[in-house]
Amino acid sequence: MKIAVLGYGTIGSGVVEVLNINAGKIARRSGETVEVKYVLDLREFPGDPVQDILVHDYSVIAEDDEIGVIVETMGGTKPAYDFVKTALLSGKSVCTSNKELVAAHGAELIQIAKEKNVNFFFEASVGGGIPIIRPINQCITADEIQEINGILNGTTNFILTKMAEDGADFGDVLKEAQELGYAEKDPTADVEGYDACRKIAILTSLAYGKQVDYEDIYTEGITKITAADFKYAEKMNAAIKIFGTSKKIGDHVYAMVAPQVVGHDHPLYSVNGVFNAISVTGNMLGDVMFYGAGAGKLPTASAVVADVVAAVKHQGEHVPITWSSDKLDITPLDEMENRFFVRVGGEEREKAAGVFGEVQMIDAGIAGECGFVTPVMKEKEFSEKVKALDTLITRIRVQ
Question: CA-CA distance, 193 to 157, in Å (whole number)?
Fold first, then answer.
């Protein structure tokens, strides 16, 4: 099997490395030798063996009938979408790690693959090296998925973990994360929750079989979380994590990305550092958790190559993926029910109880303020009630 790799960055070079190092095992598992015939990139790589198979024009790959599988690791939607669509229409299977592409065009590309009797695989688009796409699509199909909670971004999980451990503020830890290479120079996509939003959109689309537009998902990042918030969390025997969450209650599907306070008995409480984890609740299975390296060159490349093996094994056979282009209506956030951790000025302690009823007061020893946890209520109800407080400092949802 001749394949082509689009993009020779971190993940693309990792794919080539995995294919070379584990060539024998990959051949045994796929049923034939897998050879990288082309690598597409605009750059040159003098001294790298890939230079011998490097091309700069995609048409060379698109028009080569020997190429049966294309690996897309370019990122973004342009020109990745055009390249992938062209590949599928010409009868080539595609394996991608590109969450932006999958979130925006997954349903369409799956349909084209079905019509052309090829495959569009994207295991590495969520959770890096963690297997989650295939389990949802193939292993949990007997269940009605009731809820998905995911720590879906290693950068933000590292930042929140370090803030908790060191008592540091967001800006200082972000700088450290950038120095260590865990955060980009422009960290907006990570710290504002956009990366996690695309991933929970993909998982929700797969869980319920319809298109979820990530623009419809309420998204809140971690930039407003402070060291003081962690002092309260410690008193609550809890942690602060940012989750991608979707849940089905009756006929309503809710989805959200936001920081949440999680108790010590929560399965994702102890997931720290750059690791990712995804908890899936089925109506028959109960809770299962997928945990591991959610990013990184070789873990992500390993997931991509696993898709390549599957594509080679299923030549001439489309593997069904339930994800139609019909839009899934996400219930407005106002209707979602949560508890809320709230910090206000100390002078409003009694007023808070009067506004919210039976609250759990939290004393973190911070002068001039107090914290409390509300009862479960709809987001809309909370938004209305909190207006009665004049000294609101912050609020974080409680899992």
Answer: 11
